[in-house]
Structures are given as structure tokens and as C-alpha cells.
């Protein structure tokens, strides 16, 4: 039987998930909820679903699963409500900006024996999956060093920055999750450096736009993450894994695959501009994985614990910048 | 209002078009027809359309347009029937293997003022479109030399080869169309060489598996086409245009974009294996273009005349091989 | 003992060979000859050799080998004189523009049991050697189709064109040799198309600037060659070999290996501008190979016969253009 | 007049410099010194220079300049002796493993008004020079983030490791110099993480084989360096500079530029195996730059101060690893 979905939040990412649900065999989009009527109407018009309130969806017998795409500060509450209501829950990262709130929420999920998947879309990117598959197939041998380059084409609006929890919790969090996934071992210590280089106003808002992080596991494996809020050439998303037998690396995605040559040289297109186009396959795969795990009763591939750990690394990075030292993750998790 | 489609033929390419129609805004898949019940049922199950006979579809008031995906020897008849029935017609290439039959069919289309689009999917590939856009934007200057590399991963079944009209009419025909499109000028002479190198049985069936063609226009522009029915590394599809100002070239598409390095060197994935995956975007764009032209009442981007001309180049190539000389297209068109 | 060289002709290519001889262990540059005193002086100043006349060199006991870099119409005479004088001879291609003259010259070489190597430098390019090694190691299986792209950054001076014997004898001749080398089988038929697209004056001088050639062997292996006298992006030199097991391809050489990315995309440097820089390693390897074969008494890797056959293919191509038909090489060789 | 050289030390790097001197116009190799007679003889035989002792060279009137390629612990003494003797001095990095000793040595150089160039060969690599030129031409805008990947194909012998001063002083020191050069601003703080992952014995010797470093300048520019003593795929040497306008990146150098494709995909050669082949052009350019600056009386492009600063960054990195904190360079320089 088809899994019946409601989507909470019809903003940009809500629309991405609506399309993914609507086009995935084995899933049906039943309802959309959004306080902005026009946003909800856009989704309804495109996919022919109902418009309902979140309260109605909570008690809708014809909804098996929800996708939470509402503002971050509502995530933890909604996860708890819908787990209690017996719905399978897919929630966009992060669960919450506060680590204790995340921990409390995960206890509720556990108590309800609910299904929770946290949206770390990059784990479902076909290229990154191919890198992971190469590791798992032993092609690089023992993983030793991971390099993650992640640069946004431009900074988000200032008011988003204010609410985002800062670059480590908002942007680097994806890279923290990738690092954990690729290292195959928990991170023990975090060192980070942070600067404001692209826009002084970002600094005035208390955030950074340019950061580098070194992660180290107990056995000495390391990962480096380099982030910037500005890359004029597009959305720069690369990973590279060095192991005892070799290297596996995922390249960027250009807008096309043509080269034009002239007297000045060879010219390729800029990169796909942002996550909506770059990760279109990842978002589809992610929802498909959620559907499959709900249908099969298996554990979700990206869990609440993954969300908690990535947030802990973000907090450790922030502390490392503030105190100018290597911070143990155990200091954060307490 | 949404354009209402029926698809004639539920084979491999029929399923590709069914998916394209079903997922294109502004189009609705109303019916599928196929003498093989199971094939029709597959499409019905996936997209929820009716199963009807071709005769029924011909007289269905709720069908505005048809996509002809039946065997080649039925194309011309169906084009004529559905143009007379007032349906817009999209037909897979070729219109027919006989040039006079194509010419006669196009006269019927003209007489009925019907809409006919012939499926040269490659013109709608995003990369090839980007090459064409680069030409049109003047980035390569005056086009002088076109190079088209087109190699199939493997040969089709022997019985398909028997009915295919031979490699020039079946495989090179796509490249002939690309050459005409990229040269921007009609071809005047054709020289071709042909061999059987991959499988002697293909030769026994009267066909070739390895061909090279030189096309030359009246003003001296040239195109070369290199084809093989075997490429162990996947479906090799490249175009390159040299002009007075520079070069534009479209690269191949690999199965992924990761590189694994070890003591033996750097290893990338094979190419996408065949047209179903390589040209997935092209097929979607093609149907979208058909819908747009029907809705706008504009001429179709790939016409019956394009089908006729590509077939004429195929016949000229065959004659060139047989007679060991440069053949003028005017000899073929009479 | 070191092989003692004289170089006949101190022009551009003579200077390339002087440097190669001077920097190759086992070789000594003894003398340079050139009617232009300043040219000879440049070589003398750089490498400390004598300046002598050709006549003097012919009778110099301290010269073991000569490198002929004089104008084409003197090559055959000088080869004969120096073979008779007992010197090992390296001669720049072509031996002569007239096929009968080449044949007569090779008879003299044979009669004197002289050593003659003809300068097909590309066979000594490290990348092309790696392609040949991949073929010889069976990595591509049986060779089926060869593609050679060869474009000069710009046309030579008009007076050079007048004396060059035309594009097929002057430029394509290198590609004919490469095709023979890579096909591993003699060519049976030649088809060619030729145009004047880059400069009408080249046509007025009776030459072409844009040509495509198809070569076919008796067993059906084929090669295509595409040439232009203009490539704004540099000296375009690519080869590609398709076989039953796979493909081997050599890429171009850019001026450097850096990429600069900005809002317009990714930008690489143009190609090395011409043969003096692109084939610097090939020229050095070529002279080293000549020295080694002289010292070892082995046959030279590129022979007078290779020069003759490449010229025969050029004549066949010219005839193909003139007569609009496939020309058998046997028609040319008689 | 030609600059007359003696080379002190005929080991691997001494031979590299001997070849560079011998083949550079404007330089003459007069003498070689090495306590190992066979090593000195190799250089003499190849280039026809004298074999002399260091003492003799010190007082040789026919020697204008020396290249110091002796063991590290002799560098500072020899620099002082030859500066006092009035010879121009090129010294392989490092000047010494002890920062105070370096400082003392540089004072002697200054007092003698001597010419000292320290061998940071990578600044003279054509690709890295092209990256620097792109920066200087404003193509990347203001430099913000530098990424340096530097991996050796394998670790040096254990006894070398014992004398090397450790990975930061021996290997990363090149990257520290590159970072300073590319950032265009002095580093203020250093954070480093270090592990033993490739060979436990390296750890037993008190060294590391896998390190990551973050450098930060006062204005917030950052560089990351990732090092490993093992890369199965060859000598991995990449730099990348992100700026306000874009990115400049230098790619690796493979053993050749051919690709072989088969059913398993596309295969490129491993990287050039180590510095002797990868940086052959850099070593030649470096010596040419030294000759040019001596002849022109200009400051050397890589100075004793550069050597001092790179060593200071190495010491800061070591301290950062030991103390688990960001270390200010001012703590090291005192």
C-alpha cells in the first residue's frame, strides 16, 4: 500500500519534498499545511493534495507520515507531537539549535517508539553514495583523512543568519555529518578557525562567513572542512577520502558539460548554483529511503542521534573558536 | 488547458515517452495502445491512463495528440491517419525507411495542415543545446568543421538489425540530423566508409558495424561522423564544433562523477550505458517542446522535412559505400 | 664513444635538433652548416661547435652523422650524398615532394647500405608512445578505428604554402604516418574532402586549409583525420584509438595546468602554441632514438619507407579530392 | 660573464642542481665537492667539472657562487663560511632545525652583506607561478582561503626521519612557505592535528605521518594544509586559492596524459612519483632565478627570512599539537 504523506511547511524546501513525494512510487501526497495560504495553494495546485492545518493533520487517519519543513524552532515540538500521534516523521535538519532540547526530544521519540529520520540530504547524493560505496568495497583501504570543501554561492539574508544559530550550526552541520559518515568513527576533538571576510555585516550579526575545521577521532583519523559563504563560481561541493590503499573523490557539478575554447583558453560553465538544483537527486533519494524504511520497518538511515552528534560538533567548533583550543566532544555532550 | 495524449506503442521508447508526458506540466496521459496487453498494462498501472485500441484513439474526442512509438513500418500510415483525424502527431524517427514513402506521407501532412514533430531527441539534450546556443551566440564564430562521435555500447539483436534498414538509416541517422543542425547549412556531398569489425554475423545480415562519414556543404563546411556498434566503456556521445573564433565541445556522461585513485592510477566510472539513461533529459525536453509548439501553434522544432533529409543522407552514405565515391545529395533527392 | 654530429641547416627546426643533440648523452655536436652566417653563428654560440660548409662536412672524418634540416627540395640530394659519404643520416620529413624522386633516393640509400631515419617526431611523443604501448599491451584489444585531430594555431606564410606541396603533403603527412603506426596495417583506400575556410588567399595559391580524410585498410580498420590551419585556442593534437576491448586517447597539452574560476565559469589556459613547445620531448626522444639505433646497428624506427608511404597517402588524398572518389593506394604506388 | 658555480654535496638533490646549473645559460659548473668519491665522480663525469674539497672551494677565486646540498646540520655553518668568503650562496632548505641557530646565521649573512637564497623550489613551479600570477593580476580578487594538499608517495627511511626534525620541519615546511607566499600576509596563529596512521614505527621514532594545519592571519585570511606520508597514487601536490572574485587552482601532474577506457571505466596514469620528476622545471627555474638575482644585484626571491618564518610555523604547529591549542607565531619568534 502507498504511504500517505502530509507536508508541514510549503516553503522552498517543503516544495522540494512535495515534488519528491509526489513522484516517488509507493508514496502519496495527501495534504499540505502552511500558515501562508498562497504557499499551500502552490503545492495543492501542483500535486492535487488537500490543504489542512497542522492540528487536522495530527488527527488525520489518512496520513501515515509527515515531512517537517517548518521553521527550525518548531521542529522539536512537531517531532514530539507527531511521534505521539503515531506518524512516521521525516524532519529537516536541525532538530533544534539547543543540544539539551534535541536530547529531550529524542527521548520522547524513543518513548513513543516513533520513527524519526533527520534530513541530511547529502548522504543520498549519488556521487557521495558512490564514494561511500568505494570505501565500503575496500577500494581506498582504511580511511585516514577526509577533506570536505563546501562553499555557498552567496550568504543567506541577514534575518536568516540571525535565526540560523550561526554558520557552524546552519552550514557546517552538513559537513560534520558527512565527516562522521565517511570517517566511520566518532570524532573526539574539534579545532576550528573562523573569520568574517565576505561581508562585515555578518560579523556585526555575531556570525562568521569563512571557517576551517579539523576533526580528529580517537584512533587518529582526521577530517578537514573548509567553508565559505561566497563562491562566485557556484555551489562548491567536494569530498575526498584518503585511505591506506588510495583516494576516492567526488567532483563538482557544472551547469552543463560543454567546453568552449578560444584565444583566451578553455571555458567551462559555472557550478550549479545551489542546493535546489545540485541536490535534486539527493532529495528524491532521501524521501525514497524514508519511504522504504517505514515500509520495511527498518531503522532510518539518518537518525535523531545523527542530528544530535552533528550539532554537538558544531558547538565544539564554536567553543574552539571562542577559546582558541582543541575541544573534546565529550565536553559538549557532558 | 492541458494537452491530452495517447501513446501508440508501449515498448521501451513508448514507456520513456509515457513518463515524459505524465511528468510534464500542461500534458495529461489519457490512453495507451499496444497489441501486447502486458505492455499496455504496465503503462496503465504506472500512470493511471486508459488502455484503448489505436482505432478507438483515432476517434477519441478526449485525445488531442498522439505519440507514435510503434514499429517503423507503421509510422507513415499512422501519421497520415492521425493527421487526418486532426490530432497533433509526435512520431519517433524514422518516418519510414523508404524515401518516396516519407515524401508521400509529408504531402498528406501538408494537405491536412497537420502538426508533425519527428523525434530527433538529441537536439533536446541540454549539453547539445548548450553547444548550439554557444554557436548561435557567436562564441565559435563561423562554423567550419563538426565532429560527431557516436558509439553504441553494443549491437542490437540480429532480428532488429534485419528490420532496421541498416546502420546508416538506424544509427547514423541521428548523427546526420545533428550534423545538419550544427552546420547550419544543407549537406551537398557525402563520402562514407563502412566495415564489419565487431561481429561477422552483422555482415552476413548485410549490415555494417563500423562506419565513418564525411559531409560537405556547398560553401565547404564539413562534418565527420564516426560510429561503432561496440564501445566497451559505455554509450559514447560527443560533438565538437570548430569555428573561426574557437571550439565548442560536449563531453560524455559517466555513471557518476567520482574518481578512485590507487597504485594503478586514477579511475572514473564507465559512461551511462545507453540512450534510456543518457538522454533522459532530452526525451523530457522533447515532449515539452512538442507540447509547447502545439499549444502555441508554432512550427515544430524537428519536422517531417528533417526526417526526410536525414534519411536522404543515410541513402547517400550507403550509395557512397557501394560505389566508392562522393555522392551528391541531389542524386538521392532527385 | 660519443656519436659526432653535424647539423645541416640552422633554421627553426635545425635549432631544435641542435639543442637535442647537445643535451643528449652519447652525442656531440661537432659542426653546423647554414648559408645564412648569422643563423649558423647562433648555434655555434649556444653550443660551441664549428661552423662548416656542407661540402666540408661531407668529407669531415670527425663527423659520424648528419641531421638534414635544409629546405625540402634539397633533402633527397643530401641524403644520397651523405649516405655515399658513409654518414648516418637523419632527415626531416619529407624526403621529397615527388614520389618517384623519393623512391629513387631510397634505392641509393639501399645500395649504399646507409642508415636513414626520417623525422616523424610524433611517434616519439611520450603520450603517443603511451597510447601505442597500451595498444601493444593489448589494453584496447584489436584496433578498429583511429581518430586523429590535428589543427595548427595558424597557417604558415603564403610563400611557404607555395613551396609546401599543399596541406596533405605538408601537414596531414604527420597524421598519415600516425594512422599507419596506430592501425598496424597498411591503408588500402583513401577518401578525402577539402575546403578553403580560413583564408581565401590559401585557395588562390591552390591549397586548402580544412580537410577530412578517411583511411581504410584491407581488413576494414579505419582512421579519420581532421585538419585545420586555424585553431584559435592553440595547437590541437589529439589521437584516439578504439579497439575491441576499449579506447586509448591522448589529451592536449595546455600552457599550464591551472584553472581559474569566476562568475563566468571555469577557465583553463590555451594549448601550447605550436610544435616547438608541444613536441619538445618528442624531438629529444627522436634524436635519442636515432643515436641509439646508430650505436646499436639496429634498423631506424622511422624509415625512408615510412616517408614514402605517408607521401603516397597524401597523393591519394589529393587525387580523392580532385576526382570525388575513394582512391586505392595501389593506384599511387603503381 | 658566466656565473661560476661549485656544488657542495653530490647526493640526489646535489645532482638535480648540478644538472640545472650545467644547462642554464649564464652559469658554469666549475667544481663539485662530496666526501663520497663516487658521488662526486658521477657529477664530474656528467658535466666535466673539477672535484674539489669544500675548503678548496672556499678559497677558489674561480668560484662565484655555491649551492649547498650537504646534510642539514652543516647548512648554517657553510652559509656563514661562504658568505664570509664572498660567494653568493644558494642553500637547500632548511637553514637549520633550530630557530635560534637560523637567526644567528642570518645575522652573519647580514653582517657580510652576503647573498643568500633558500631553496623553496615550489615557488618556481610553473603552475604555482601561474596561480600566483593570477592572484597578482587580480583574477581571484582579495585572497581569503588557501588550501594546500601535499602528500608524499611514501615515507623516507627511518634514519632520515630521525634526523629530519619531524614532519612539520621536513615536509610541511614547504607548505608553510607556499601558504605565506599565497596568503600575502603573515600568519598570526597556527592550529595543528597530527596522527600516526601509515606506519606505527614512525610514531615510535617520535614523528607523525598524517597532519592537518590551519593558519590564520591577523585580518582573518586562512590556509589549510593537509599532509600524508603515503599516497599510493603518486606525489599529490595541489594548491587552491579562494578569493573575493573567484578561485585559482593548480592540478596534479600525471605520468602521462592518456586515458584508457574499458568495461571498468576510464583510467588515467598515476601521478609523477616524487619531487625529482614533478618539480624538474621548478628546480631549473629556481637556479635560473638565483643566477639572475646575483647577476642583477637584486634581492633573492626566497630569502633567509623566508626560511626562518617557515621554520617558525613548523615549531608553532608542533607546539599546537603538543598543547592542543592555537599557538601564536609571536610565541615562537619571541
Q: Which SSEs are present, and which pair or pack?
A:
The structure is a homotetramer of 334-residue chains.
Chain A: E1 3-8, H1 12-22, E2 27-33, H2 37-47, E3 50-51, H3 54-58, E4 65-68, H4 72-84, E5 88-92, H5 99-111, E6 116-119, H6 126-136, E7 143-151, H7 158-163, H8 167-183, E8 187-195, H9 200-204, E9 210-217, E10 222-228, E11 236-243, E12 247-250, E13 258-262, E14 265-268, H10 275-278, H11 280-296, H12 304-323, E15 327-328, H13 329-333
Parallel strand pairs in A: 1-2, 1-4, 2-3, 4-5, 5-6, 7-10
Antiparallel strand pairs in A: 7-11, 8-9, 8-15, 9-10, 11-12, 13-14
Helix pairs in contact in A: 1-11, 4-5, 5-12, 8-12
How would you portray this structure in words?
Four copies of one chain form a homotetramer. Chain A has 334 residues and is of the alpha/beta class. Chain A folds into two domains: 112 residues, Rossmann fold (3-Layer(aba) Sandwich), CATH 3.40.50.720; 183 residues, 2-Layer Sandwich (Dihydrodipicolinate Reductase, domain 2). Helix content of chain A is 41%, strand content 25%. In chain A, a hairpin with a 2-residue loop joins β13 and β14. The termini of chain A are far apart. The model of chain A has no long low-confidence stretch (mean pLDDT 96). Chains in contact: A-B, A-C, A-D, B-C, B-D, C-D. Chains A and D meet through β7, β8, β9 and β10 of A and β7, β8, β9 and β10 of D. β12 of chain C pairs antiparallel with β13 of chain D, so a sheet runs across the interface.
